[in-house]
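Module 6 notes. Inverse folding takes a fixed backbone as the condition and produces residue identities as the prediction. Think of it as a translation problem where the source language is geometry and the target language is the twenty amino acids. Below is one complete input and output pair. Work through it position by position during the lab.
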């Protein structure tokens, strides 16, 4: 079989080889991808998956090594899709961290007609927004509204490029970005790297001016916490088709976050009480300002772990199997600590016999903090004593 040559259609920007066609910019990063795609698409029968055997079969079939195929193919792609337009493509490399990637090259060619017309009409400064959205100036004007459109038209190419980078293909946050100083958008460590809407909200609610530099990690962490709550709440609101408002106070945002998270948890975790706990009579105890309440379902245990920021949810299966009990300790109605108790079947003595008593395993506050108040440890002792009293009576 004679060597097969590549065919390049300059007008339609198509590279052909042995009946295969590539009509968009593509680069092969390794010979593995060359052999995998070409042999598969040409339906060449492969008897061995070993790389050396596959490469040998490729060379024998097409009279060119996979390495040379990759070299020639990538060079042709670059000459056809990049080289004649390199100067213009370089204007938009901010969308790909300064690298010429297939994504940015193909995006450029997709909107090239729009970009060329903008240049011809003397409005190239708006081209970054057109590049990001894939829309004509007329479509953009209708989409963003008269006020935002005027600001876009007044901006320089560089400022619109910064805005487009943070905006992505959606114009939903365009008004926020148009308010944001370029000095903030340029910052490498700016919270805006996470997303404009939640960033602007978080910066304002954290009490920082828009021109804050965020050089200190403590400042960035403060904003990051609010960003995460904002992003999570917005994501959950879409998932549940519930209300979301970017003007909510921090307090309301946190309340909605808890509300939506609770709805999702209820869908994921059952609130059906564990049948194995039906015989547990110590379900609620009071001692002064403290109460101890037995958690009887997977949902209740998961909610306790979320509220207290610890890993009690890892004990769900143990509770379901009757090997463990979890009590929520509250002070004046507010969660204060979580008590874990081993069942009599859990502890084995020195001689191998099963323990006949309920035993203390752990009691931790928020974020696994030790319990400091004596009264709080006393109610835990009372729970265990009452459990063992019932056990003895039986």
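Target side of the pair, the amino acids:
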């Amino acid at each position: 079989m004679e060597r097969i040559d590549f065919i390049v259609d300059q007008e339609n920007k198509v590279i052909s080889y042995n009946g295969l066609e590539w009509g968009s910019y593509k680069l092969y990063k390794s010979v593995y991808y060359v052999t995998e795609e070409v042999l598969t698409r040409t339906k060449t029968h492969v008897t061995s998956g070993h790389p050396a055997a596959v490469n040998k079969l490729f060379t024998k079939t097409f009279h060119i090594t996979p390495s040379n195929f990759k070299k020639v193919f990538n060079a042709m792609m670059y000459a056809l899709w990049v080289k004649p337009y390199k100067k213009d493509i370089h204007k938009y490399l901010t969308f790909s961290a300064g690298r010429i990637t297939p994504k940015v090259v193909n995006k450029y060619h997709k909107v090239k007609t729009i970009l060329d017309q903008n240049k011809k009409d003397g409005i190239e400064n708006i081209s970054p927004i057109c590049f990001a959205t894939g829309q004509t100036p007329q479509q953009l004007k209708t989409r963003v509204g008269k006020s935002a459109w005027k600001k876009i038209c007044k901006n320089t190419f560089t400022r619109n490029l910064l805005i487009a980078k943070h905006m992505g293909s959606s114009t939903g946050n365009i008004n926020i970005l148009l308010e944001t100083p370029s000095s903030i958008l340029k910052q490498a460590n700016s919270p805006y790297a996470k997303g404009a809407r939640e960033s602007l909200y978080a910066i304002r609610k954290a009490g920082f001016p828009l021109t804050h530099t965020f050089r200190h990690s403590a400042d960035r962490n403060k904003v990051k916490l609010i960003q995460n709550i904002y992003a999570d709440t917005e994501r959950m609101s879409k998932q549940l088709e519930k209300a979301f408002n970017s003007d909510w106070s921090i307090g309301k945002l946190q309340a909605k976050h808890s509300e939506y998270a609770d709805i999702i948890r209820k869908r994921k975790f059952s609130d059906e009480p564990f049948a194995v706990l039906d015989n547990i009579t110590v379900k609620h105890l009071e001692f002064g300002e403290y109460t101890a309440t037995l958690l009887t379902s997977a949902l209740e245990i998961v909610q306790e772990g979320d509220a207290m920021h610890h890993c009690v949810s890892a004990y769900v299966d143990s509770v379901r199997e009757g090997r463990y009990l979890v009590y929520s300790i509250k002070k004046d109605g507010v969660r204060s600590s979580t008590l874990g108790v081993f069942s009599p079947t859990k502890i084995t003595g020195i001689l191998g016999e099963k323990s006949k008593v309920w035993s203390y395993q752990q009691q931790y506050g928020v974020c696994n903090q030790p319990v400091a108040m004596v009264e709080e440890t006393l109610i835990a002792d009372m729970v265990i004593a009452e459990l063992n009293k019932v056990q003895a009576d039986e």
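Reference fact for the lab report: The first helix runs from residue 31 to 41.
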